[in-house]
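Handout, page 2. Input:
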Amino acid sequence: MATRIIVTGANGQVGKALLARLWDTSAETHAVTRIPGPLQATKVVASPLDSEKVQKAIRQSDVAIHLAGTRWPKTSNSYYGANVATTAALINAMRDSNVKRIIFLSSVDAREDSPNEYLRTKGQAEALLRTTGIPTVVFRCTHLIGSPDSPGATAQALQSVDGERFWRRGYGLPRSGCPGGGMGVCRLPEPVPPRAPAACSKFANAPNERLLN
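Output:
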């Protein structure tokens, strides 16, 4: 029998790339997304994580890959809602389920006592997953940058427009309006050329500096 894998946040950059890779395997993939649309999966479930439709799909899965979350919450959403409440809904469905492994996409420096709201809610989500007793793999990633043709929302947010300076968010003094709060903003001496994700990666990996939000 094929392994049944459920992927939350399946229509994001990582989710789409993962589904494309899994498509060439024997796995049966169920993609969970809030917005209906074509995805490379055995079945697409467009519904909230706490809906009965999704809860049933989770209970019947062997592996749960939890990608749902956000760095940039919309007006109707929040860091807690996107990162913690979705994880709680996943855990609720996994009680008395077939799930034997969880894979979770987190972030470098995630911890429950972080002053940054994004990192704090990721840390809270990790803590919830530790209570399940189910073997869990946590990927604590830095910024995820795609190919030049499809760099992803994070890389696009870090690109400048011709002639404009590039602003980098990172550690520093608290500044209102910075995603996650408690973040600083500094101006780089020169603009980053448009469509240059490699440059963004260079800044992310610079010594003693980290791009968090």
